[in-house]
C-alpha cells in the first residue's frame, strides 16, 4: 500500500506525487517504474479536491492532535493509514453496493483499471506503462484475463479485412 504526498494544487499547476510512502521495509516503491507521473482524469482531480476539503475539516477537528505529514490520504489526525484500516473502510464502502465485500479488496481496483482500459481499446503497451510494469510480458502474465479484448484485436482486424468468408 502506498500513500502519497502532493506538491501543489495551485490553479494552472499540475498535481504530482512528490514522495510515495510505502509499507515496504525499504520505504521505497516496488520498482523504479513505480515512480512516474500520470495524468489524472478530471473526475479524479475533483475527488482529490473533495479529499483535501475533508482533510481540512479533519485537521480543524483534531486541533493540536493533528500531525502535519503532508499526506493526501491520512487518518483523522494526519498520521499514515494502516493497511487494515484501509481494507476495513474499503469493505464498508463495498457493502453499500451490489458487490460482495468478501470478494473485493483494494487490489481489485487495479485489476478493474486494467479491464476498463483494455475494454476501451487501450493498447497493451500503454496499459503496461500505466500500471508501471517493466514490460508487456509482465502485464500479460499478471492480467491475462483482463487483457483478452486487446489480444483479440488482430482477429477482429482480419475479420474486417477479409469479411465473413
SSE topology string: EEHHHHHHH
Number of strands: 2
Report helical residue fraction: 40-55%
Distance between the termini: 51 Å
Question: Could you tell me the mean pLDDT?
Answer: 80
Arrangement of strands in the largest sheet:
1-2
* Class derived from helix and strand content: mainly alpha
Query: Main β-sheet, in a few words?
Result: 2 strands, antiparallel
The total count of helices amounts to 7
Poorly predicted segments? none
Please tell me what the overall shape is. elongated
Radius of gyration: 19 Å
Beta-strand fraction estimate = under 5%
Care to describe what's here?
The chain has 165 residues and is mostly helical. Helix content is 45%, strand content 2%. It is built from seven helices and two strands. The protein has a two-stranded antiparallel sheet with strand order 1-2.
In summary, what is this structure?
This protein has 7 helices and 2 strands.
Secondary-structure blueprint:
Layout: E1 2-3, E2 21-22, H1 42-62, H2 83-94, H3 106-119, H4 124-130, H5 136-142, H6 148-151, H7 153-162
Antiparallel strand pairs: 1-2
Helix pairs in contact: 4-5
Which key phrases capture this entry?
single chain, 165 residues, mainly alpha, two-stranded antiparallel sheet, 7 helices, 2 strands, elongated
